[in-house]
Design brief:
Layout: H1 5-8, H2 11-16, E1 39-42, H3 47-62, E2 67-70, H4 76-85, E3 90-94, H5 95-103, H6 111-122, E4 127-129, E5 139-144, H7 145-151, E6 165-169, H8 180-185, E7 192-196, H9 200-209, E8 215-218, E9 229-232, E10 244-249, H10 250-270, H11 273-284, H12 290-300
Parallel strand pairs: 1-2, 6-7
Antiparallel strand pairs: 3-10, 4-10, 5-8, 5-9
Helix pairs in contact: 3-10, 3-12, 5-6, 11-12
Length: 304
Protein backbone atom coordinates (compact mmCIF):
# COMPACT_ATOMS: atom_id res chain seq x y z
CA UNK A 1 0.00 0.00 0.00
CA UNK A 2 1.10 3.61 -0.29
CA UNK A 3 4.42 3.65 -2.09
CA UNK A 4 3.30 1.06 -4.63
CA UNK A 5 4.50 -2.16 -6.05
CA UNK A 6 6.60 -0.13 -8.49
CA UNK A 7 8.76 1.05 -5.61
CA UNK A 8 9.49 -2.33 -4.06
CA UNK A 9 11.81 -3.44 -6.81
CA UNK A 10 14.09 -0.53 -6.10
CA UNK A 11 13.90 -0.61 -2.32
CA UNK A 12 17.42 -1.89 -1.85
CA UNK A 13 18.76 0.78 -4.17
CA UNK A 14 16.83 3.47 -2.34
CA UNK A 15 18.05 2.36 1.08
CA UNK A 16 21.61 2.79 -0.10
CA UNK A 17 20.89 5.92 -1.99
CA UNK A 18 21.19 8.51 0.69
CA UNK A 19 24.29 9.27 0.22
CA UNK A 20 22.01 11.14 -2.24
CA UNK A 21 24.60 13.88 -1.99
CA UNK A 22 26.84 11.64 -4.05
CA UNK A 23 24.19 11.16 -6.75
CA UNK A 24 23.09 14.59 -7.60
CA UNK A 25 25.70 17.06 -8.72
CA UNK A 26 23.31 19.69 -7.39
CA UNK A 27 24.16 20.31 -3.76
CA UNK A 28 24.57 23.98 -2.92
CA UNK A 29 25.02 25.68 0.44
CA UNK A 30 21.84 26.95 2.01
CA UNK A 31 21.11 30.59 2.61
CA UNK A 32 20.35 31.47 6.21
CA UNK A 33 17.65 33.96 7.05
CA UNK A 34 14.31 32.65 8.27
CA UNK A 35 16.13 30.04 10.32
CA UNK A 36 15.53 26.38 10.86
CA UNK A 37 16.93 23.49 8.88
CA UNK A 38 17.31 23.99 5.14
CA UNK A 39 14.40 22.76 3.02
CA UNK A 40 15.73 19.96 0.80
CA UNK A 41 14.45 20.50 -2.76
CA UNK A 42 14.92 17.57 -5.14
CA UNK A 43 14.42 16.85 -8.83
CA UNK A 44 14.14 13.89 -11.15
CA UNK A 45 16.83 13.32 -13.76
CA UNK A 46 15.37 15.18 -16.72
CA UNK A 47 15.52 18.78 -17.84
CA UNK A 48 12.23 20.38 -16.88
CA UNK A 49 12.23 18.68 -13.46
CA UNK A 50 15.61 20.27 -12.76
CA UNK A 51 14.41 23.65 -14.04
CA UNK A 52 11.29 23.47 -11.88
CA UNK A 53 13.29 22.54 -8.79
CA UNK A 54 15.60 25.51 -9.43
CA UNK A 55 12.62 27.83 -9.89
CA UNK A 56 10.90 26.82 -6.67
CA UNK A 57 14.19 26.79 -4.74
CA UNK A 58 15.11 30.24 -6.05
CA UNK A 59 11.71 31.68 -5.18
CA UNK A 60 12.00 30.36 -1.62
CA UNK A 61 15.53 31.72 -1.23
CA UNK A 62 14.37 35.11 -2.49
CA UNK A 63 11.92 35.20 0.42
CA UNK A 64 14.58 34.20 2.94
CA UNK A 65 13.96 30.47 3.27
CA UNK A 66 17.06 28.29 3.62
CA UNK A 67 17.27 25.72 0.83
CA UNK A 68 19.51 22.80 -0.08
CA UNK A 69 19.27 21.39 -3.61
CA UNK A 70 19.49 17.67 -4.45
CA UNK A 71 19.06 17.67 -8.21
CA UNK A 72 19.17 15.14 -11.04
CA UNK A 73 18.68 12.23 -8.63
CA UNK A 74 16.83 9.72 -10.79
CA UNK A 75 13.37 8.17 -10.92
CA UNK A 76 10.49 7.98 -8.46
CA UNK A 77 11.77 4.58 -7.34
CA UNK A 78 14.75 6.39 -5.84
CA UNK A 79 13.15 9.63 -4.76
CA UNK A 80 9.89 8.48 -3.16
CA UNK A 81 11.35 6.42 -0.31
CA UNK A 82 13.60 9.36 0.60
CA UNK A 83 10.65 11.75 0.44
CA UNK A 84 8.71 9.44 2.75
CA UNK A 85 11.60 9.43 5.24
CA UNK A 86 11.91 13.21 5.16
CA UNK A 87 15.43 13.11 3.72
CA UNK A 88 13.99 14.91 0.70
CA UNK A 89 11.27 17.44 1.47
CA UNK A 90 10.14 19.16 -1.72
CA UNK A 91 9.74 17.61 -5.18
CA UNK A 92 8.00 19.21 -8.15
CA UNK A 93 5.76 16.36 -9.33
CA UNK A 94 3.48 15.63 -12.29
CA UNK A 95 0.05 14.57 -11.13
CA UNK A 96 -0.89 11.78 -13.55
CA UNK A 97 2.54 10.17 -13.60
CA UNK A 98 2.80 10.35 -9.81
CA UNK A 99 -0.49 8.47 -9.46
CA UNK A 100 0.27 5.88 -12.14
CA UNK A 101 4.00 5.32 -11.62
CA UNK A 102 4.46 6.36 -8.01
CA UNK A 103 1.43 4.53 -6.63
CA UNK A 104 0.38 2.09 -9.36
CA UNK A 105 -3.13 3.54 -9.58
CA UNK A 106 -5.27 4.64 -12.53
CA UNK A 107 -5.44 8.41 -12.64
CA UNK A 108 -8.73 10.22 -13.05
CA UNK A 109 -8.90 12.38 -16.15
CA UNK A 110 -9.10 15.95 -14.84
CA UNK A 111 -6.55 18.07 -13.02
CA UNK A 112 -8.66 18.89 -9.95
CA UNK A 113 -9.66 15.25 -9.53
CA UNK A 114 -6.06 14.10 -9.89
CA UNK A 115 -4.98 16.62 -7.28
CA UNK A 116 -7.49 15.26 -4.79
CA UNK A 117 -6.59 11.66 -5.67
CA UNK A 118 -2.85 12.23 -5.32
CA UNK A 119 -3.29 14.13 -2.04
CA UNK A 120 -5.08 11.12 -0.56
CA UNK A 121 -2.35 8.76 -1.77
CA UNK A 122 0.43 10.92 -0.30
CA UNK A 123 -1.31 11.70 2.99
CA UNK A 124 -0.48 8.45 4.87
CA UNK A 125 3.17 8.95 3.93
CA UNK A 126 3.44 12.39 5.56
CA UNK A 127 3.55 14.31 2.28
CA UNK A 128 1.20 17.13 1.29
CA UNK A 129 0.43 18.92 -1.95
CA UNK A 130 0.27 22.64 -2.66
CA UNK A 131 -1.63 24.13 -5.60
CA UNK A 132 -1.16 22.52 -8.99
CA UNK A 133 0.07 24.63 -11.88
CA UNK A 134 -1.42 25.15 -15.36
CA UNK A 135 1.94 23.88 -16.68
CA UNK A 136 1.94 20.28 -17.90
CA UNK A 137 4.57 17.86 -19.15
CA UNK A 138 2.61 15.09 -20.82
CA UNK A 139 2.70 13.04 -23.99
CA UNK A 140 1.06 14.70 -26.98
CA UNK A 141 0.75 13.35 -30.51
CA UNK A 142 2.00 15.32 -33.49
CA UNK A 143 1.63 15.04 -37.25
CA UNK A 144 3.12 17.13 -40.02
CA UNK A 145 1.26 20.39 -40.52
CA UNK A 146 0.90 19.92 -44.28
CA UNK A 147 -0.71 16.50 -43.79
CA UNK A 148 -3.03 17.92 -41.12
CA UNK A 149 -4.14 20.68 -43.46
CA UNK A 150 -4.61 18.38 -46.46
CA UNK A 151 -6.60 15.73 -44.58
CA UNK A 152 -8.38 17.88 -41.98
CA UNK A 153 -6.62 16.38 -38.98
CA UNK A 154 -7.21 18.24 -35.72
CA UNK A 155 -7.80 15.38 -33.25
CA UNK A 156 -6.61 11.81 -32.82
CA UNK A 157 -9.94 10.35 -33.96
CA UNK A 158 -9.43 12.14 -37.31
CA UNK A 159 -6.68 9.64 -38.09
CA UNK A 160 -9.48 7.28 -39.15
CA UNK A 161 -9.62 9.37 -42.34
CA UNK A 162 -6.25 8.00 -43.46
CA UNK A 163 -5.67 4.71 -45.27
CA UNK A 164 -2.66 3.91 -43.10
CA UNK A 165 -1.30 5.31 -39.83
CA UNK A 166 2.19 4.51 -38.58
CA UNK A 167 3.12 5.59 -35.06
CA UNK A 168 6.82 5.76 -34.18
CA UNK A 169 7.54 5.70 -30.46
CA UNK A 170 9.53 4.18 -27.63
CA UNK A 171 9.10 0.42 -27.09
CA UNK A 172 6.97 0.87 -23.97
CA UNK A 173 4.44 2.94 -25.98
CA UNK A 174 3.21 -0.08 -27.93
CA UNK A 175 1.59 -1.72 -24.88
CA UNK A 176 0.52 1.35 -22.89
CA UNK A 177 -3.07 2.55 -22.95
CA UNK A 178 -1.94 6.20 -22.80
CA UNK A 179 -0.05 5.60 -26.07
CA UNK A 180 -0.38 3.22 -29.05
CA UNK A 181 -2.65 0.78 -27.21
CA UNK A 182 -5.03 3.68 -26.68
CA UNK A 183 -5.02 4.30 -30.42
CA UNK A 184 -6.15 0.72 -31.07
CA UNK A 185 -8.30 -0.04 -28.01
CA UNK A 186 -9.93 3.35 -27.31
CA UNK A 187 -9.80 5.16 -30.64
CA UNK A 188 -10.37 1.89 -32.55
CA UNK A 189 -7.84 2.81 -35.23
CA UNK A 190 -7.79 -0.41 -37.24
CA UNK A 191 -5.52 1.29 -39.78
CA UNK A 192 -2.70 1.88 -37.25
CA UNK A 193 0.62 0.06 -36.91
CA UNK A 194 3.54 0.67 -34.56
CA UNK A 195 7.23 1.19 -35.20
CA UNK A 196 9.76 1.23 -32.34
CA UNK A 197 11.94 4.36 -32.43
CA UNK A 198 13.42 5.10 -29.00
CA UNK A 199 14.91 8.59 -29.32
CA UNK A 200 12.99 11.75 -30.13
CA UNK A 201 15.44 12.92 -32.83
CA UNK A 202 15.05 9.81 -34.99
CA UNK A 203 11.29 9.90 -34.40
CA UNK A 204 11.09 13.40 -35.82
CA UNK A 205 13.20 12.26 -38.78
CA UNK A 206 10.72 9.43 -39.38
CA UNK A 207 7.86 11.93 -39.29
CA UNK A 208 9.60 14.33 -41.66
CA UNK A 209 10.49 11.59 -44.14
CA UNK A 210 7.04 10.02 -44.18
CA UNK A 211 8.22 6.86 -42.44
CA UNK A 212 5.82 7.69 -39.61
CA UNK A 213 2.43 9.44 -39.62
CA UNK A 214 2.31 10.40 -35.94
CA UNK A 215 4.75 10.44 -33.03
CA UNK A 216 4.42 11.01 -29.27
CA UNK A 217 6.49 13.87 -27.83
CA UNK A 218 6.53 15.70 -24.51
CA UNK A 219 4.26 18.73 -24.42
CA UNK A 220 7.29 20.78 -23.29
CA UNK A 221 9.37 19.62 -26.26
CA UNK A 222 10.20 22.31 -28.84
CA UNK A 223 8.68 19.96 -31.44
CA UNK A 224 5.24 20.49 -29.89
CA UNK A 225 5.53 24.23 -30.46
CA UNK A 226 7.04 24.06 -33.96
CA UNK A 227 4.66 25.33 -36.69
CA UNK A 228 5.90 22.51 -38.96
CA UNK A 229 3.79 20.17 -36.84
CA UNK A 230 0.27 20.01 -35.40
CA UNK A 231 -0.55 18.60 -31.96
CA UNK A 232 -3.66 16.45 -32.27
CA UNK A 233 -6.36 16.91 -29.64
CA UNK A 234 -6.76 13.84 -27.42
CA UNK A 235 -10.53 13.92 -27.87
CA UNK A 236 -11.19 10.60 -26.09
CA UNK A 237 -8.82 11.37 -23.22
CA UNK A 238 -6.30 8.52 -23.22
CA UNK A 239 -3.70 10.75 -21.55
CA UNK A 240 -4.11 11.81 -17.91
CA UNK A 241 -3.40 15.43 -17.10
CA UNK A 242 0.18 15.99 -15.96
CA UNK A 243 -0.02 19.31 -14.17
CA UNK A 244 3.04 20.28 -12.18
CA UNK A 245 2.39 20.11 -8.43
CA UNK A 246 4.76 20.61 -5.48
CA UNK A 247 4.86 17.55 -3.21
CA UNK A 248 6.14 18.74 0.17
CA UNK A 249 6.84 17.09 3.50
CA UNK A 250 3.83 17.69 5.73
CA UNK A 251 6.23 18.51 8.55
CA UNK A 252 7.70 21.34 6.46
CA UNK A 253 4.21 22.60 5.56
CA UNK A 254 3.18 22.60 9.23
CA UNK A 255 6.37 24.27 10.45
CA UNK A 256 6.65 26.91 7.72
CA UNK A 257 3.00 27.85 7.52
CA UNK A 258 0.95 29.99 5.18
CA UNK A 259 3.74 32.32 4.05
CA UNK A 260 5.75 29.38 2.71
CA UNK A 261 2.70 28.00 0.90
CA UNK A 262 1.93 31.40 -0.60
CA UNK A 263 5.47 31.73 -2.01
CA UNK A 264 5.25 28.32 -3.68
CA UNK A 265 1.69 28.80 -4.95
CA UNK A 266 2.64 32.13 -6.53
CA UNK A 267 5.26 30.33 -8.62
CA UNK A 268 2.85 27.58 -9.65
CA UNK A 269 0.24 30.12 -10.73
CA UNK A 270 2.64 31.80 -13.17
CA UNK A 271 4.02 28.65 -14.79
CA UNK A 272 2.43 27.38 -18.00
CA UNK A 273 3.29 24.76 -20.60
CA UNK A 274 4.46 27.27 -23.22
CA UNK A 275 6.98 29.00 -20.96
CA UNK A 276 8.16 25.65 -19.58
CA UNK A 277 8.79 24.59 -23.19
CA UNK A 278 10.81 27.77 -23.76
CA UNK A 279 12.86 27.17 -20.61
CA UNK A 280 13.56 23.58 -21.66
CA UNK A 281 14.73 24.79 -25.05
CA UNK A 282 17.18 27.21 -23.46
CA UNK A 283 18.76 24.34 -21.53
CA UNK A 284 18.58 21.53 -24.09
CA UNK A 285 19.09 23.48 -27.31
CA UNK A 286 21.09 26.52 -26.19
CA UNK A 287 23.10 24.88 -23.41
CA UNK A 288 22.20 27.40 -20.71
CA UNK A 289 22.50 26.13 -17.11
CA UNK A 290 19.15 25.28 -15.52
CA UNK A 291 19.97 27.55 -12.55
CA UNK A 292 20.49 30.56 -14.83
CA UNK A 293 17.33 29.88 -16.80
CA UNK A 294 15.33 29.58 -13.57
CA UNK A 295 16.81 32.80 -12.17
CA UNK A 296 15.96 34.73 -15.34
CA UNK A 297 12.37 33.50 -15.29
CA UNK A 298 11.90 34.37 -11.63
CA UNK A 299 13.19 37.89 -12.24
CA UNK A 300 10.93 38.34 -15.28
CA UNK A 301 7.94 37.28 -13.20
CA UNK A 302 8.84 39.52 -10.28
CA UNK A 303 9.38 36.55 -7.98
CA UNK A 304 13.04 37.09 -7.16
Amino acid sequence: MGWSRNIRVAAAVAVAALGLAACGGGDQPAAQSKGGAPIVVASFNFTDSQILAEIYAGALEAKGYPVTRKLNLGSRELIYPSLKKGELQFVPEYQGAAIATGFGKDAVKDAAGEHAQLAQLFKPEGVGLLNYSPAEDKDVYVVKADLAKAKGLTKISDLKKLDKVVMAGGPECETRLPCFKGFTDVYKLTNATFKTVQEIGPRVQQLDSGGATVIPVDSVSPVAGDPKYVVLQDDLGIEPTENVVPAVSQKVLDERGADFANVVNAVSAKLNTDNLRELNSRVDADGDPAADVAKDWLQQQGLA
